Each structure stands twice: as C-alpha cells, then as structure tokens.
TrEMBL record:
Encoding gene (name): urtB
Pfam family, one: BPD_transp_2
Domain of life: Bacteria
Stated family: Belongs to the binding-protein-dependent transport system permease family. LivHM subfamily.
InterPro entries named among the record's database cross-references: ABC_transp_permease, ABC_UrtB_bac, BCAA_transport_permease
Topological category with respect to the lipid bilayer: Multi-pass membrane protein
Keyword tags: Amino-acid transport, Cell membrane, Membrane, Plasmid, Transmembrane, Transmembrane helix, Transport
Name of protein: Urea ABC transporter permease subunit UrtB
Keyword Membrane: yes
Organism name: Shinella oryzae
Length: 297
C-alpha cells in the first residue's frame, strides 16, 4: 500500500507541475491554453537534446528546459494570445492550432531548418532519456524502500510549488497577479501593467510545464504527441481544485493522482482513467466552481 501511495504521489507531482501553470494562466488571463501540453513535450525534448548537444547531465536539463519553454511561452503570448484577450473561444482555437504546429514541427524535424540546421534527436521516432545512476536506486525511509527517481520527482515538485507560493504571496509581482485574478479591470485602474504581468505569468507557467516534461522523460518514452493528454489532465486538476486557487490545485492534483494509482493497481489504467473522469464530472455537477475556488462578494 505504501508503494501504491508513493506511486500516486509521483503521478500527482507531474500533474501538479502541469496544472500550476494552467491555474495561474487561466485564472489571471482567462485563457484556455491548449498548447500547454506541447510545453511538456518540448521540455522532454530539451532533456534529450541537452544530452546530445551539450553532453549535459539530467539535472542540468531542468533549468535549461524551464528557460527554453518559458521563452517559447512568452513568444506565443506576445504574438498570438495578447491579441485575443477577452475572446475565450478564439484563444482556445488559436492555441490548439499552435499545439498542432509544434507537434508537426517536431515530427517533421522542422525545428530549426529555417537556418539550414538539422537537429539530431528530433523527429517522429521515439526518444529516451537516461536517468543518472544515483537516481535509479531505492531510498530507505523508516524501513520502507522507495524508488529514488520518483522521490526526486516529488522533491523537485515540492521545491517548485514552494517557489510559486513565495512568488505569489511574498512578492509585489505575486500581489499583482492575484489582483488580476480577482478583478483585472480594477487592477489596471490601480496602475498595474496587466499586459506585462500576463506575459510573465504565461512564461512562468510554460516553464513549469517544461520542467514537468523533463521529469516525465525519465520514466516515459519521449514522442511528439506526449503532451496531448497532459493538457486534459492539467485542466481536470484546475477545474476540480478551483480556477486560480493554488491550494486547490495542490490538493486536487494529489486527490486525482492517488485515485488513479489506487484504481489502476486493483484493475487497469483504462478503468482508473474512467474513474478519474467520473470524479471530475461529479465535482463539476455539485461544485461548479471547484472544491477550493475563491468566494465572491
């Protein structure tokens, strides 16, 4: 049972990294970013390419992936999303189109061929990332043996979640983000540069998704479509926890991850996913604003 719970925690950690960015972005900007899953995929490919090009170890790939996906997210926000604020359906369709473009660019090895450069490692083939030997063993805690890499995933997620909380609740930038989540027009009237804050928020959320991709590359095969399901899982966490609620996102990711792990052990992955969807539907029916959404006045 401890092993099952631990596996559930590691799954919840991946969900949390993906959902944190979605929760902040959707809460502050009102944007349904369908390309968020592709940031996960790009992060995984950064882990592959950093080892090929730079000979970098797995740990170094984490900050590299954060920077690359954050810059890509900033570019998407500046070129596309910024022009579509207040048009929910248009942003959904536009970011969905961007996700398809990114997938096809990777699948067709189109990444940097604008400059006549061929990227080894990209393409439709499956890729794998080697986890360092010191993360492949087991960790003994109170007489219980846990997988070292899954413990590492949980540790990285806790660190990034704490960093996100500190930024949102202990910095002036975080105050601005929370003000925009509550009332963007009033925040703008108070002198907050809403466009600038939105751009940085979008970039930060994309960076977190990139780190999630690196974490996933250690135990899953890397391929162009790997992010497609992650954006759905991320939105399920956000909807369950409550839009814009970091506390709700943390708890709902843990809840859905553990449900998935417990049901999968007793049955199979397909039934486990069906049960997770049923739980999310139940939450939507009885608590449409999520379990821990902000209370209006």
């Amino acid at each position: 049972m401890f092993d099952v719970i631990f596996i559930g925690l590691s799954l919840s950690s991946i969900l949390l990294l993906v959902a944190l960015g979605l929760a902040i972005t959707y809460g502050a900007m009102g944007v349904i970013n369908m390309a968020h899953g592709e940031m996960v995929m790009i992060g995984a490919y950064v882990a592959v390419l950093s080892s090929i090009w730079l000979g970098a170890n797995f740990l170094l790939a984490i900050p590299i992936a954060f920077v690359v996906t954050a810059l890509l997210g900033l570019l998407i926000e500046r070129l596309v999303v910024r022009r579509l604020y207040g048009r929910l359906l248009d942003t959904l369709l536009a970011t969905w189109g961007i996700s398809i473009l990114i997938q096809q660019a990777v699948r067709l090895e189109f990444g940097l061929t604008f400059f006549g450069i061929h990227i080894d490692g990209l393409g439709p083939g499956l890729q794998n990332v080697t986890v360092p030997a010191y993360l492949q063993g087991t960790v003994s805690v109170a007489g219980l043996e846990f997988n070292g890499y899954r413990a590492f995933i949980i540790g990285v997620t806790l660190a990034l979640t704490a960093l996100t909380w500190l930024i949102l609740y202990r910095t002036s930038a975080g105050v601005q983000v929370r003000a925009i989540i509550r009332n963007p027009k009033m925040a703008a009237a108070c002198g907050i540069d809403v466009k600038r804050v939105n751009a940085l928020t979008f970039a930060f959320g994309s960076g977190l998704a990139g780190v999630a991709g690196v974490m996933m590359s250690g135990f899953k095969t890397v391929f162009p479509d790997m992010g497609a399901t992650m954006v759905v899982d991320g939105f399920m966490v956000v909807v369950t926890g409550g839009v814009g609620s970091i506390f709700g996102t943390i708890l709902s990711s843990g809840l859905l991850g553990e449900i998935n792990a417990l049901v999968a052990i007793g049955t199979n992955d397909i039934i486990a996913r069906a049960v997770v969807f049923a739980v999310v539907i139940g939450v939507i029916l009885f608590r449409p604003n999520g379990l821990f959404s902000y209370k209006g006045r």
